[in-house]
Amino acid sequence: MTKPFQPPSRILMGPGPSDVHHRVLSAMARPTIGHLDPQFIVMMDQVKAMLQQAFFTDNALTLPVSGPGSAGMEACFVNLVEPGDTVVVCVNGVFGGRMKENVERCGATAVVVEDDWGKPVDLEKAEAALKAHPGAKALAFVHAETSTGVESDARSLCELAREHGALSIVDAVTSLGGIPVLVDHWGADAVYSGSQKCLSCTPGLSPVTFSDRAVEVLKTRKTKVQSWFLDFSLLTAYWGGGAKRAYHHTAPINALYGLHESLVMLHEEGIEHAWTRHSMMHQALLAGLEVMGLGLLVEPSARLPQLNAVLVPDGVDEAAVRARLLAEHGLEIGAGLGALAGKVWRIGLMGQSATPHHVTTCLSALEAALIAQGMTLAPGAAAAAANRLLLV
User: Are residues 321 and 246 in the same domain?
Assistant: First the structure.
C-alpha cells in the first residue's frame, strides 16, 4: 500500500525555493472556498494592493499569474510582443537566454546584447543596440540574474528603453522583496517576479505588473495573444473586474492564501527593513567566506545580497560538497548552471532563509565539508567572523 509522502526537513539556501514560514504554511491549510466567492474576491483585492506596495507602483494591472516565475515571464512576452516585432534582449546569464527564447517563440526577432556571466548588463551596449534598431518594440533584461548573482542597473536600462520609444520588460524574480524594485520610479513597463524567492512563499505564483503604456500596447495589438491562458485582456476581467468577476480559470485558491500571508508578513516587517536584513546577512556570509579563502564571482558593486555565487576552490569536488551538506545537515545550496556548472555554488539568502541562524549554519557546514576534502581551515572561524558582524 502506498503511504502518504512525508518530505524531509530541509534548510533551503539554494537559488530557490527559500524556507517558508509556518504562518504561510498554516494559511495554505485554511478551508478552500470558491474562486468566485465574495470573500475570496476581497482577498484578491488585498493581494493586488499589497503587490502594488511591494513593486512600488500604482499600476492597475498588477496581479499574480497562476504559475511560477517562468509563467510570468511568458505572460509579459506573449501579451506585448507580436510576430514581426524586434526586441533587444540583454543576456548575461541563463535567464536572459530564456527571454530570448520567448521572443523567438512569439515570432519576433531577438537582437541579443551579450555580456559575460557574472557581469551586469553593459549600458553602452544596450544603447547601441537600440540605436541600431530604431522601432524596437522592447528592451528586455534581468534585474537580478539568478544564475550568477549579479544585479544590473534597472533604472538606467528602463530610461534607455523609454528614450528610444521601446517598452522595458524586467525580470525581478529574485529581486522582489530582497532589494529595491521601484517600478514607477524606474518607469518600467512590464515586471515579473516569483513567489518562492525573497517573498518566501511556496513556488507556483508569479506577481506581474504592467504600466499604462504596456496596457495600451496590449489593447492595440494587431493579433490575438498566442496564449489563451496568459492573455491579460481575459485575465483582467477576473482579477480587475470589480465585485462581479468574469470566470477565467480556477485560481490556485490555497496557494493565494499563502501569498497573501507572505505579503502581510512583508508589510509587518517593512519592505525597507527587509532590504536591510538581506544586505546584513550577505555581509555576514561574506565575512565567513573570506575567512575560508572563498571568493564570489561578482564584483562588489554589482553583487546581489540574496544570491551569492561562490567560486569553488581548485581541487574541491563541488558536487560532493553539496551532497555532504544535504546528507549531514539537511542543507541545500545550489550548483552552477550552464557555463558555471562545476565552478560555483549558489548560496541563497532569500526571505525566511536570510537570518543569522541560516548564515552561521551554512558557514559551519561548508567549513566542515571543505576540511573533509583536505583544506586546512580553523574549525569555527567562519561562523565566528559572521557573528562579529551579526552581534554588533
Answer: no
Q: Is 23 annotated as a binding residue?
A: no
Count the alpha carbons within 13 Å of 30 in the hemisphere toward its beta carbon.
19
CATH number for 359? 3.90.1150.10
Q: Considering its fold, how many domains does the chain have in total?
A: 2
The count of other CB atoms within 10 Å of the CB of residue 248 is 18
Residue where a domain terminates, one of 267, 295, 325: 267
Residues 146-176 pLDDT 10s: 999 999 999 999 999 999 999 999 999 999 9
Pairing of strands 190-192, 205-210: antiparallel
Residue type, 318: E
CATH number at residue 102: 3.40.640.10
Q: How many Cβ atoms sit within 10 Å of the Cβ of residue 314?
A: 5
Helix or strand (DSSP H, E) at 173: none
The per-residue pLDDT for range 249-303, each reduced to its tens digit, is 999 999 999 999 999 999 999 999 999 999 999 999 999 999 999 999 999 999 9
- The reply to whether 220 and 131 lie within a common domain is yes
pLDDT, tens digit, 9 for 90 and up, residues 9-26: 999 999 999 999 999 999
Same domain, 304 and 337: yes
pTM comes to 0.96
Range of the domain at 288: 271-390
For residue 336, the one-letter residue type is G
Q: Are residues 348 and 203 in the same domain?
A: no
Strands (E), the chain: 11-12, 61-66, 86-91, 109-114, 138-142, 144-145, 150-151, 167-171, 190-192, 205-210, 307-311, 331-332, 334-335, 344-348
- CA–CA separation, 80 and 89 (whole Å): 14
With pLDDT > 90 as the criterion, what percentage of the chain qualifies? 97
Please state the φ and ψ torsions of residue 163, each to the nearest 5 degrees. -60, -30
Mean pLDDT over 313-329 rounds to 97
| Residue 117 CB partners (closer than 8 Å, separation 6+) | 92, 93, 147, 148, 297, 338, 339, 340
Q: Cell numbers of 242, please? A: 470589480
Q: How many CB atoms lie within 10 A of CB 321?
A: 21
Per-residue pLDDT for 392 more than 70?
no
